Amino acid sequence: xxxxxxxxxxxxxxxxxxxxxxxxxxxxxxxxxxxxxxxxxxxxxxxxxxxxxxxxxxxxxxxxxxxxxxxxxxxxxxxxxxxxxxxxxxxxxxxxxxxxxxxxxxxxxxxxxxxxxxxxxxxxxxxxxxxxxxxxxxxxxxxxxxxxxxxxxxxxxxxxxxxxxxxxxxxxxxxxxxxxxxxxxxxxxxxxxxxxxxxxxxxxxxxxxxxxxxxxxxxxxxxxxxxxxxxxxxxxxxxxxxxx
Length: 244
Description:
- This protein is α+β, with helices and mostly antiparallel strands.
- 39% of the residues lie in helices and 18% in strands.
- It is built from 7 helices and 7 strands.
């Protein structure tokens, strides 16, 4: 959460849409425009975080600070109040994240169950699901090979989150330097092949915004090549990439 000390916060909770306030604001000078813009932004931030505000108290606090008037609360009371507010907002945000996580896990579980019964879909012991679209005729990669691919990545609801096609160039990486679902899945292909991967959380990302999500990838294996010594050194455990 962001806490603000600038004087523009005086505008945060005022009824900015009313004609009376609009008439009072002289937005033909830079200071007024900056103040209004900052106030509107701050108000939006507090609203999104669900913070209830008393506009009279907000304005009074700013006026006292600007005029060096003795505050109605001690500095210790102000500090404690703001820290309690911060804890409350953080707790609310954690609850929302947990609620969304439970919802996503339920949706992903249903998707995996339904997808497993579709024609051509194979489920491995690890839980990876894949469907060969085109086997390919070239070399098959091993885990330590370098591969060049084109791919699209999406969530189980179809929302795309990454695409080498959109970037206009394929991606090249060592196969054991990416998520486990890719390492396992692409070894079922040969150069020129195409595969659909459905990767459950345990084989996908262990951190970041896609953590604990089931991911769908359409992958085209363009080329396979051994990793040279320099590339292998660059892909030490500390330097492994976490995503395709």
